[in-house]
């Protein structure tokens, strides 16, 4: 550390040579680089921790986790009178509701329920 403080004090004095200023500038750039690297790594670590923590809070706990996105489609002609679609992500019949949302709501205090799609009743 004496080496660094010696260069800095010599650079800041009025009789500093160009070589001293260049050395001090190099040290400053190196210090900025190291600081940037440390901040970037600490931020990345925090991001990774947040990502791991959120895993337990996933909306979808287990349905088709091997897929990057769970997408289902249903033709309107196949709906019949009505279909009940799961929105709690806990149904064994997903994408259809099997009533598991009631158990989930009791256990967690949540208030999720299905989406019911039906045909308008004709007059
Ligand atoms: S089981 Fe998921 S909404 Fe009913």
UniProtKB/TrEMBL annotation:
GO cellular component: mitochondrial outer membrane
InterPro entries on file: CISD1/2, FeS-contain_CDGSH-typ, MitoNEET_CISD
Superkingdom in the source lineage: Eukaryota
GO molecular-function terms, A-Z: 2 iron, 2 sulfur cluster binding; metal ion binding
GO terms, biological process: regulation of autophagy
Cofactor: [2Fe-2S] cluster
SMART domains assigned: ZnF_CDGSH (SM00704)
Alphabetical UniProt keywords: 2Fe-2S, Iron, Iron-sulfur, Metal-binding
Pfam family, one: zf-CDGSH
Family: Belongs to the CISD protein family. CISD2 subfamily.
PANTHER family given in the database record: CDGSH IRON-SULFUR DOMAIN-CONTAINING PROTEIN 1
Protein's UniProt name: CDGSH iron-sulfur domain-containing protein 1
